[in-house]
């Protein structure tokens, strides 16, 4: 599980197979071992005689999966209730926080990222962004992609989703208020982005991850 995937990969046992690891390390797994089909948000991947999982808590999900395979749904549900292990997780996507991914960013890209985070709610304008840093749009895109493997817009979208997740976890604000605060006038557009990123709707995310005050 998790880091164990790298041990199997280094031994060559996963070449030609599908696998996963913690979402935080899937880019590195794919970079080091291009013969592996890396599933970046899968919670459990079974391929042949191997089963790989996300981070260490996914061991619980794997255990329930084994119970279900050998004992059926009823016993798996009972095991979930007795062990206090939720039987509702099917993906790592809701837990992904792109701002935590290690990035070999240059000072230039660091500055662009800081600017984007500081102007989260502003309308995205690539030409204006390039002008702010006194480069052409082509140069901006090239340097950003070289350092991060992504684009400024993709980074901004990930940062907006991350900000929305924090507000959903910690605030009482309505979802449409959060939508506007992170830069979207159209609720449907934001909802589509949020679901495509996390695998759940904003309402579902709030129900699952809402931080309750200590009693």
TrEMBL record:
Signal sequence, renumbered to the chain: none
Keyword Endoplasmic reticulum belongs to the record: no
Every HTH araC/xylS-type domain range: 110-208
Pfam families: HTH_18
GO molecular-function term, one example from the UniProt record: DNA-binding transcription factor activity
UniProt keyword annotations, A-Z: DNA-binding, Transcription, Transcription regulation
InterPro entries registered for this protein in UniProt: AraC_XylS_family_regulators, Class_I_gatase-like, Homeodomain-like_sf, HTH_AraC, HTH_AraC-typ_CS, Tscrpt_reg_AraC-type_HTH
Top-level taxon of the source organism: Bacteria
Family annotation (PROSITE patterns): HTH_ARAC_FAMILY_1 (PS00041), HTH_ARAC_FAMILY_2 (PS01124)
PANTHER family assigned to the protein according to its UniProt record, in alphabetical order: HTH-TYPE TRANSCRIPTIONAL ACTIVATOR RHAS-RELATED
Name of the protein in its database record: Helix-turn-helix domain-containing protein
